[in-house]
Every structure is written in C-alpha cells, then in structure tokens.
Amino acid sequence: MTDLTALLATAATGGDPGPFALVRREGAAHLELFTGTVRTADRLADLPLPDGPPGPRTLALVPYRQVTERGLACVDDGVPLEFLHIARHERVGLAEVLAALPDAPVRTADAGFDVTDDEYAATVGRVLAEEIGRGEGANFVIHRCLRATVQGPPLAAALAALRRLLASERGAYWTFLVHTGTRILVGASPERHVSVDDGLVMMNPISGTFRHTGAEADRAALLRFLADPKEVEELYMVLDEELKMMATVAEHGGQVVGPHLKEMSHLAHTEYLLAGRGTKDVREVLRETMFAPTVTGSPMENACRVIARHERTGRRYYAGVLALLGRDDAGRQTLDAPILIRTAEISPAGELRVPVGATLVRHSTAEGEVAETHAKAAGVLAALGLGPQAPAAGPGPAVRLADDPEVRAALAARNAPLARFWLDQRSPGADGPPGLAGLRALIVDGEDTFTGMLAHQLGALGLVVTLRPWHAAGRVDAHDLVVVGPGPGDPGSATEPKIRAMRGLLAGLLAEGRPTLAVCLGHQLLAGLLGLAPHRRHAPYQGLQREIDLFGTRRRVGFYSSFTARADADRLVTPYGPVELARDAADGAVHALRGRGFAGVQFHPESVLSPDGMAVLADLLGGLLPPRNPATAAAGRVPGRA
Questions:
Q1: Catalytic residue among 143, 179, 456, 604
Q2: Quick check: is 639 in a domain?
Q3: Which residue ranges does the record assign to the Chorismate-utilising enzyme C-terminal domain (predicted)?
Q4: CATH code for the domain of 602
Q5: Among the listed ranges 105-119, 239-253, 259-273, 595-609, which one has the minimum average pLDDT value?
Q6: pLDDT averaged over the chain?
C-alpha cells in the first residue's frame, strides 16, 4: 500500500499529492486507486481510449454544460471537461483503506443556500404554471446549492468524509473521491447513469426517496410509499425518458428489468434496470445519454431549455457524470458512469458546494419541494460528516426491507399496468402483420425522443424506419407512411417556427393524400387543420395512464399532454372527407381520429404506460397502409397511388 500511504501522508500535512481518485464500486470489497495526469478536453469524443492491455484508461469529470455538445441549452458556467489520464491502477482492500484514512470530524462555517427558500418557492410556482401547465413537459428538476467553507486543509477534510461514507453508507453505486488539483469531488452516488460491458448497454433510472430509521415501523410506511400514486408516476415517467435514450444507443431499444428497492443507510429508492445490446463507441453512448431525466426532466431537449430559463447559475458538475473508460480482455471498449448526485465539490481554497434538486411534477407544491431540497442537503452533509454536530450514520435495518414478501409483491405489482413490449424484448418484424413487412416509414421528430421508441415499435411491426428532426424533414415521397411525432409546445401558436413547420408539413400531407399518422403534438396540429382548435387542459395529463374507448375497443394507454382538441360529435365533415373521432364522454376530448389516409392519437402508443400501444399501432396502420406491392415499392411510389 505504498502509493496510498505516501499519498495520504502528503495530504495530511496540507500538501498536494498530485491527481488521484479512490473509487469503491457497488458491492466491492476493495477500492480502486487511480493516479496519473489531469488534462482537459473540449468534447467527449476527445477523451483518450487507446488500444492496449485490459484495464481503465481515462476517468472523466463531465460537467452539466457538456450538453451543449448536443445543441442543448444551459447556463454556461465554463466548467471544464477534466479527465485523469490513468497511468497507474491498483486495488486496495476496504479494511486497509479505512485504517489509513483520517478519522476526524470535519467542520464548516457560513453555510447557506445560494437561492433563498422564498425565491426557490417562487421558481417552483412559475415552472408548474408556465412550463408544465403550458405543455412544455412532464417533469423538470430545478436545483439550488448549499454553500459553506471547510475549516482546515480541504483534501484532508474530503478524505475524512470519504472514510465516513465507506464506513457507514451502503447501497451506493459508487463511493468516491476525485482530486484533480483544481477541485475535489467526494460523494456516494446511488445511481448508475450508463455502463457498457461486453456490448451490453445498461441504464438505471431511480425515482422516489423513502427515509427509514431501521425500525419495524418502516415496513408499514414503506408499503404506503410504494402505493403512493405520485411516487409510482414519477418512476414511470423517468423510466419512459430513459427508454427514449436506450432507443438511440441500443440496437433494439432497452428491456426493462425490475423494479427493485435500493436500500442505503438512511434512504431507500425505487429503481429499474434497462439493458440492450449496442455497438456504438462508448464516448458516443455517453454523448447521446447526456443527461439523466432524474436530474433534468422530460422531454430532454425542452427540459434543458426550462432549466436554463429558471435557474440562476450554472450547475457545474451537478447532474453530470463521472465516466471511467477502458478496455476489457478482448480489447472491447468499456464504460462505467455514475451520476454526480449526493456529491460535494470542494475548491483548493475550501469553498464547499452541495447541489441538490427537486423533481417538479403536476402534483408538486412549492412548500413540499423547498422542504425536499433541505432534506436532501442535510442528508448529504450528514452522510459526509460535514458541518457541526452532523449526526452519525446508523447501521440501517437489521433485515433488508426488500426481502419482505409484501414489499416484493408491491414492487412486482408496479409492472402490471405496463407495456409488455418493453418488459419482454422482441425482434424486429416479430409482431407485425405480413402486409406491413418492408414498407417504409418516415418519423418526423417534434423535439421529443419518444420518437426513438416509436421507431423500434414500427420496426417490430416490420416497417423500415427513418427518423428526422422537424427542421430537416426533407422529402417525404420516398416513404409509404409519414409519422408526425410528439414534442413540447403550444399547438395554437402562429409564430413558433417548429409549430409552423409541422403544421405546414401536415397540410401538405393531407393535400397529397399521403398515408399519415400523427402522435400527440402532431395529433393536435392535425386536429386543428381539420377544424378542431386545441384547448389547454385544466389539469395537465402528464404521465397519466387511462383506459379509453378507441373506436369501439377499450384500450389502456399513456398520456403526456397539456392540450387537447374537443368535439361534440363522433363524426366530423372536413375538406379531406369524413373523419371519425374517439372522444371522452365526459368533456369531448378527442383521444384519436381517423379519416381516409390519415389518423391521429393524442396519447403515446410507444410509452411504457401504453400496454395496448402495439395493438393500437397495428390496427391503425392496417387501415392506413395497403399490403406491400413489390413492384410499386421498387419504383419508390406509395402503394395504391399513381
């Protein structure tokens, strides 16, 4: 243990031992010590991953501002993409590390939030009213930062905090300290963002926090927590959002495993695991999955805009990831990347930052979200042993709550209403009627990557799918079907470029009589062209599952919308022929419509909340697309049209 001993001896005297990282991965009986040189990169693609013997190559500290690589919005604080170019890697037993780390209290002064409670509450109110209420998305995470000053040498304090985490925390995905010379990150993240090993891509959406004491009373409280509709819906929404990401990095999308209960010393979380096979470069996987919906919101592109509109400062490393890149015994690329939450950042001058966020959904209250940020900040400080009179972490429950039969049953029950398509992975073409095989579909993305999931479903029905953004839809005449997809925004806007472009695309498709399916925002725009003006719902339908009457058949489907078209009859006469409507009997909301050569649905058949989604798509496409004719297909013409 010569390297670690020398490193700690230097740190104890206030010296700089050079860049290093100490990492304990979930369940490991050892820590990994990485040493090397620290450099910076502009892009994730610039992170080095050279060939050579198996092992880790690079440990990257990926800040939130890196979302600009994807063209997403942020408050750009200029925090760099630093990485440790690993020169030496060794394993050290947990007991040895605990014996070597300093066992001393850590003191802080001048602690306080950078945003006051009143200011944060006002921001929550604005997001609920102006963003979720106006159809900009289903959920958004708004952060604030507790700031303080560490008393004494910062690195010695961070090492003492790491010891406390290793001794008392459990269930963390990574427990770590990274020292670059310009900053220290120390924490215990419960959540894997993304990993790649042996070609298997995995993500780990977590939502819901249950605070336990280790007492028997926790069992009853936990069962109430597992049955809480708000907690259930929040997990479903982040599951949908990470399935969108998996749709871009795994060849057939992600298969859902779980849910599980992740137990830590003071907290328990509900989580799913997503897995799928992929062949992308791991740096591209990292880029395409920036960043987790549990720390941003959904849909992702607009969530970043909302965060930029309402947060006063940049996020630095909060919501970013640590990313360990390497190669396995066969020379294949590997990636392991936890989310940077439950993490403190300490500067060489002793400035301490503990960022925390609250997930805002349609059920949220300003008072509740303010309280949640206080509880999260206090929990991080307590776990790290930071601050005066920080409580010691307890041993946790004597018996794992996840082993209780009723808890297991409550978790399993969460899958009962979900779409089996995502729980049972399928092969392309396995679910489609023979007449759809080989037909070509163009999906036009309205800034909601639900379209990636929709592409996998259409592929499973046998179609050959092309996906393009709304601003580059291009020619549509080479496709047998055009799907005008979902996205955030006000469908009644006369000035928003995206709305105008998608409305114009639909008008052209109707005029040509080209087979068209419109989903969510696309459906609202289609309804408007048919004479049904969209209305804002009194209460948003964000992450809501309903059973509806769909043209005489009962279907259970998932909604993500704040607007809807309404009608007072089941049939509508339009310039494009008669249109049949599937309406809500209570308020006339149009759940779906169909006419000659076109159809629209307000819900998301691709969502995990739509167990009948595949049946709905098969039925609608069967009416829109005549059976494939090889002769006309080869000529690039839509079947049945001269």
A1: 604
A2: no
A3: 118-376
A4: 3.40.50.880
A5: 259-273
A6: 89
**Interstrand relation of 516-519 and 598-601 (parallel, antiparallel or unpaired):** parallel
* β-sheet bridge partners, residue 21: 34, 178
With a CB cutoff of 8 Å and minimum separation 6, the contacts of 556 are 417, 545, 546, 547, 548, 610, 611, 612
Task: Say how many residues make up the chain.
Answer: 642
Same domain (yes/no): 369, 517: no
DSSP 8-state class, residue 69: G
The Cα 20–Cα 11 span in angstroms is: 11
In a domain, 552, yes or no: yes
Label the pairing between strands 192-197 and 553-565. Answer: unpaired
pLDDT reported for residue 393: 42
For residues 519 and 481, membership in a common domain is answered with yes
Q: Quick check: is 642 in a domain?
A: no
pLDDT of residue 1 exceeding 50, the answer is no
218, pLDDT greater than 90: no
Single pTM value for the model: 0.87
Residue 195 has pLDDT above 50, yes or no: yes
- Cα distance between residue 341 and residue 379, in whole Å: 12
Given a cut of 80, whether residue 526 has pLDDT beyond it is yes
Q: How many of the other CB atoms lie within 10 Å of CB of 231? A: 19
Query: Is residue 520 annotated as a catalytic residue, yes or no?
Result: yes
Boundary residue ending a domain (369, 392, 413): 413
* pLDDT digit string, tens, across residues 126-178: 999 889 887 787 889 999 999 999 998 999 999 999 999 998 888 889 999 99
DSSP-assigned beta bridge partners for residue 327: 55, 333
Are 329 and 469 contained in the same domain? Answer: no
Return the amino acid letter for 181.
Answer: G
**Given pLDDT bands bounded at 50, 70 and 90, which one contains residue 629?**
low
Radius of gyration of the chain (CA): 26
Q: What is the CATH number of the domain that holds 35?
A: 3.60.120.10
Q: How far apart (Å, rounded) are the C-alpha atoms in residues 235 and 255? A: 16
428 and 403 in one domain? no
Catalytic status, residue 234: no
How far is 340 from 188, CA to CA, in rounded Å? Answer: 9
Beta bridge partners of 339: 321
Angle between helix 405-413 and 217-227 (nearest 10): 10
Q: Maximum CA pair distance of the chain?
A: 84
- Which pair of structure tokens corresponds to residue 332? 């294949």
Question: Residue 635: what are its φ and ψ, rounded to 5°?
Answer: -85, -5
**409 and 449 part of one domain:** no
- Asked whether residue 120 is assigned to any structural domain, the reply reads yes
- Rounded Cα gap, residues 179 and 244, in angstroms: 34
Task: State the catalytic residue, choosing from 241, 263, 301, 606.
Answer: 606
CA distance 67 to 74: 7
Distance CA 366, CA 128 (A): 9
**Among the three residues 370, 386, 413, which one is the final residue of a domain in this structure?**
413
- Told to judge if 252 belongs to the known catalytic residues of this protein, a careful annotator would answer no
Q: What is the pLDDT of residue 634?
A: 41
Domain that holds residue 367: 2-413
pLDDT digits (tens, 9 = 90+) for 11-58: 877 788 999 999 999 989 999 999 999 999 999 999 999 999 999 999
Catalytic residue among 212, 520, 523, 591: 520
349 and 444 both lie in a single domain: no
Number of domains, the chain: 2
Give the angle subtended at the CA of 11 by the CAs of 7 and 14, to the nearest 5°.
150
Q: Are residues 29 and 102 in the same domain?
A: yes
Same domain, 432 and 405: no
Q: Which residue has the tokens 């028997």?
A: 216
Q: Which two tokens stand for residue 421?
A: 């398509």
